[in-house]
Each structure stands twice: as structure tokens, then as C-alpha cells.
């Protein structure tokens, strides 16, 4: 007889294994996204030290997110064969190694190369975390569990930015990133200690034709295409906002120091708050409704940053961050739950779109910044989010 709540569909809330799994995934989310976004608050410093433009400095973020986008699908197959937990351990450990190599690289080009491979290794976590949840947790609470994982990613993104920026301003951007890597290693150790053994995973090796079938089978679904595009369009805009906000606040009329602008990243706490709540609301009211409301809130917050008042910009960033992560928590869980072929491959396709958007629009936002100032970047983001919202409203089912 089981001493913990469990049904044939997976772990239930109240069980020790359920709590351990959520804690483990929370911390590996922190480790992953602290490293991925640690350069973001440092971009103005990197631009000055390397004598490069804002969009060139943003390649420190885009190189890693491009690597992650390309890594999620290979890691999903590694996870199918070796197991979700072992694959995530290898992925995050190798990512920490490349993070260290980034800080000792003798040139900016080599640092970008190391960042690309760091991102490729980090791809193992988002590629497998949601699939791990879908397998081990009862389908009744998958949306809630996915929201908890996403809240860990928001805290990771916040920690990476808010720790690296003030240290980097005083001691150089490389040391700022190295301190974040040390934090990530501690989080990895927590994951190793807490993650329970898989009970419902069956290892399987996939041939090339079967692998392609599992991958591209999901692309026959119009609804899944729209879910993947949610990540591509909204994440691209979200990263652009945070990439270039520091440049906006460092210039006139604000002229803020880097350590102070980095405090704007505290807005990430809105995402930590909203993502698990969005999962619960999706279980109650339906995924589509929560996704659409999240996108509309994101657009409202984005528009507020056009006002040249510091307090309004801060409110705008809090609002857009809460809205974005609410929508992302729903979409990321939906990608796995609605898979028509390989579940982990569907989650990986979502992450491919999510981080490809981050790379593409995270860079292009700088082009709009050069051409039209901050309003150019904001308008780009509004158009991207509006397109995602229209597609979701027209194509996605209620659940």
C-alpha cells in the first residue's frame, strides 16, 4: 500500500515525491535561467568595455538563446534514451563548464562562442523539465506544477541579472557572470539531492525515421503551431524589452547608473507570482482564456513604458512581466499536454520557437532602438504580442 498520494496517472499534491519534484525543478530552473540571462543587466558595460553597439552587445544573450533553441530537440532525444533526470544533470553541468570558459575567454568572439555552447547545454533543462512533469505528476495538476517550475525560471532570470550587474559595474562583467555561475552550481546540487527517481519513465532509443516522425508529427497540428508561435513572438518581444531598457534608462533624461537600472529586474518577481497562479486559473477557467488575458496584460504594460516618468516605466515592467509569465506558464504546459506525437518533442518545439524568438527579436530590438529610439523597440514588441494574441484567439481551442 502506498503511503503517499498517488494514482495511476502520477503523483498528487500532498505527497513527498510531488513536493521534492517541484522543489528540484524550481532550483534547476533557477540554475538554468540565472546563467542564461546573467549578461543582460551588463549589456551597457559590455558595450563600453568592448567598444561595440547595443545590438552587438546583446549578442551575449542572443548567442546563448540561439544555442538553447538548437539544443532543445537533441536533448529531448537524449532524455528519451537516458532518462529525464540524468540528461538534465549532464546538460546543466556542462553548461556550468562553458559558463566558466566564457569568463576566461581572451576575446569577445571566443566569449560569444562559449556562450553559444553554454546555451546549447542549457537546452537540456527546458527540453526535458515539462516532459518530466507530464510523466511523473497526475494530469489533474500538471498545469499547476508547470507554473511552479516556471516561477523558478523567473527567479533564476532575476537572480542572474540583479547579482551580475552591480558586481560587474565594480569589478568587470566577467566576474559578475562568474559569481552567477557559482550560484547555479549550488542550485544544481539541490536538484541532485531533491529530484525523485522516475516511476513512469521507460527508456527508449529512437531511429532516425521514428525521431523525425515524432518531431514533425506535432507540426501537423494547427493548434500546436500557434502554441509554438506564442513562444516565438512573445518571448522575442519580452527579451527585447529587458535587453534595451538599460540603455534607455542610462541615457537622457534618466542618466541612471547600471547598479540602479539593474533593480528594474525586480519586476521579475511579478512573473514568479503570476506563473503558478496562471496554472491554477487555467485548470479552473481554461487555458485559452488565461493565455489571452496574459497577452493583453503584457501589451498594456509594454505601452506604459512609453511614458517618460520613471515610476510609470517601473509599473509597466511589472505589469508586462506578470502578464508574459502567466501566458508562458500556460503555453509551455499546453505544448506537452496537447502533443499528437512525441510529448517531449512537442515541448522542445515550443522551446525552439521560444528561444529562437529571443535570439532574433532580442537582436532586432536594438536595430529599432537605433532607428527610432525606445519607442521603436516598444512598437516592435506591441506588434509581436498583438499578432500572437490574434492567432491564439482565432485558432486555439478553449482547452
Describe this structure in words.
The chain is an all-alpha fold and 399 residues long. The protein has 17 helices and 2 strands. Strands 1-2 form a two-stranded antiparallel ribbon. Helix 4 (59-82) packs parallel to helix 6 (108-122), helix 8 (142-171) packs antiparallel against helix 13 (268-285) and helix 16 packs antiparallel against helix 17. The longest helix is centred in the middle third of the chain and has 30 residues, at 142-171. The radius of gyration is 20 Å and the shape is globular. The two termini are 35 Å apart. It is found in: Cell membrane.
Keywords:
globular, 17 helices, MFS_trans_sf, cell membrane, membrane, 399 residues, two-stranded antiparallel ribbon, 80% helix, 2 strands, mainly alpha, MFS transporter, MFS
Helix-strand blueprint:
Layout: E1 6-7, E2 10-11, H1 16-37, H2 43-50, H3 54-57, H4 59-82, H5 84-104, H6 108-122, H7 124-136, H8 142-171, H9 173-194, H10 208-217, H11 222-250, H12 258-261, H13 268-285, H14 287-304, H15 310-337, H16 343-372, H17 374-395
Antiparallel strand pairs: 1-2
